[in-house]
Amino acid sequence: xxxxxxxxxxxxxxxxxxxxxxxxxxxxxxxxxxxxxxxxxxxxxxxxxxxxxxxxxxxxxxxxxxxxxxxxxxxxxxxxxxxxxxxxxxxxxxxxxxxxxxxxxxxxxxxxxxxxxxxxxxxxxxxxxxxxxxxxxxxxxxxxxxxxxxxxxxxxxxxxxxxxxxxxxxxxxxxxxxxxxxxxxxxxxxxxxxxxxxxxxxxxxxxxxxxxxxxxxxxxxxxxxxxxxxxxxxxxxxxxxxxxxxxxxxxxxxxxxxxxxxxxxxxxxxxxxxxxxxxxxxxxxxxxxxxxxxxxxxxxxxxxxxxxxxxxxxxxxxxxxxxxxxxxxxxxxxxxxx
Length: 338
Fold this sequence. Notes:
This protein is mainly α. It has helices spanning about 5-30, 50-65, 75-95, 100-115, 125-150, 155-170, 175-195, 205-220, 230-235, 235-240, 240-260, 270-275, 280-300, 305-335; strands at about 35, 50. The protein has one domain (about 1-335). The longest helix has about 30 residues, at about 305-335.
């Protein structure tokens, strides 16, 4: 069954690669560019257009329209909500939005999903808790991908890895609309990788990073494993998106410790910490990609196990993540005191 989705993967790759040069011209014309050293975490030496989001979104919508999937209620709802994320992200790329306006756009997009009944349904006896967790998950992962986009090819590579895993599991659960979207994202991310690899010819921008994060968060939320009990499957989306989650948790802990605003940019991301430990930029990005692959594989190693063992594996991963945060923060304190 997976063979039918290679068409979408191929189309996503080709159309994204065709659209990137056009998107770069659009970005340059309308001032959607990232100036070097305009923020502490921006260390690139030349002006780079923020055209990645434009190309990916255009490719996804065009292929969806041509394939006839845009009339499918689930696909239409997800892409409609993702369009709101893209518009606010593009606005941010052009003018720079406050954290409040960004959250407003993310809340509106989440409301569209809830309006059409796409939400978490883990807690049968508490609809309000389901609603709260849904909002926290969607907004959290959307921002996590925006935060982790701190180095060339990092976020787009993590999105490609997550999309590949979601493609396999949604096919296995016979959720063809979600598999279609996963295949499109995978192809588009592969096509974008060529232009976003170091030294990047274009950045994803907030529009691209948030769009990818929102799409993956929604697919993860809508995905329902077939044949597996919820107590052994609830953590699968968390493990598939564990690296952006870890990066966000590290940033939050670091900035709370320093008394800095959480939304303030800085060089305290996981990528920057790895470079500070002595890894090269390429090694740091590769290590984070490998960690995402290992975590994804571990999610499906645990899935068929009895609930006790499955949750023990998940708990071990969480403890490892907490140890990494504690260790990196301790290393950072030692550097500050030197």
